[in-house]
């Protein structure tokens, strides 16, 4: 097996998969927000009354559904208005998802999110086809990434280890499927609708405002 194809060494069929469920107590907010092996990719103010952490896999159809259909409205309604800080974290279930996350990180901070967006929207073109390496290389060509940079990125063992470590931390918090969200520390699984997010977020925002008023 060539070194550049190491990341694709295991079969990646795109099937739904879950890690064995972990019987753990609810993680503390401090533990959830502790610095990890990679810089956080977040949206919204750090002092927002509500913090949402998403663990996702780029090959997960449910994650794509959230990203394409729910995230834009969630961002507009809550993140852009300063009510929510939203953190996206890597939780790859297969080598192709790991590769996608690595490539997005290799694109740099200013191109990270557009790359994540592109990978979700082209998921059917690379996540479940026979030759994942060439398919993913073709998609990344849309970003301007050269073949040399593509191969260099996927040879970065340290970066692969860091992506894997983010996922391992998620597993320690009880994450065993994607997408999984922690909303002010409380776990919610699945591609929640914007209505369901509102049911959870609105009372938290109201409570924070009331608490702020009582402290004056």
UniProtKB/TrEMBL annotation:
Keyword field contains Signal: yes
Record-linked Pfam families: Thioredoxin_4
Keywords for the protein's UniProt record, in alphabetical order: Signal
Source superkingdom: Bacteria
Ranges for domain Thioredoxin: 15-206
Keyword flag Chloroplast: no
Signal peptide: 1-25
InterPro entries with a match to the protein in the record: Thioredoxin-like_fold, Thioredoxin-like_sf, Thioredoxin_domain
Family according to the record: Belongs to the thioredoxin family. DsbA subfamily.
Cited function: May be required for disulfide bond formation in some proteins.
Protein name: DsbA family protein
């Amino acid at each position: 097996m060539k070194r550049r194809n190491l990341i694709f060494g295991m079969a990646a069929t795109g099937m739904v998969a879950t890690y064995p469920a972990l019987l753990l107590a609810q993680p503390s907010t401090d533990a959830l927000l502790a610095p990890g092996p990679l810089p956080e990719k977040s949206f919204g103010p750090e002092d927002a009354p509500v913090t949402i952490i998403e663990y996702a896999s780029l090959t997960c159809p449910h994650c794509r559904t959230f990203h394409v259909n729910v995230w834009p409205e969630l961002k507009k309604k809550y993140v852009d208005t300063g009510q929510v800080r939203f953190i996206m974290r890597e939780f790859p279930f297969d080598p192709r998802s790991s590769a996608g996350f690595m490539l997005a990180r290799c694109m740099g901070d200013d191109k990270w999110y557009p790359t994540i967006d592109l990978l979700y929207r082209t998921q059917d073109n690379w996540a479940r086809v026979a030759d994942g390496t060439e398919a993913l290389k073709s998609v990344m060509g849309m970003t301007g990434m050269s073949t040399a940079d593509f191969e260099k990125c996927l040879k970065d063992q340290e970066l692969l280890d860091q992506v894997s470590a983010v996922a391992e931390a998620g597993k320690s918090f009880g994450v065993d499927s994607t997408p999984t969200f922690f909303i002010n520390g409380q776990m919610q699984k699945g591609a929640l609708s914007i209505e369901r997010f509102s049911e959870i977020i609105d009372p938290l925002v109201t409570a924070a405002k009331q608490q702020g008023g009582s402290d004056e």
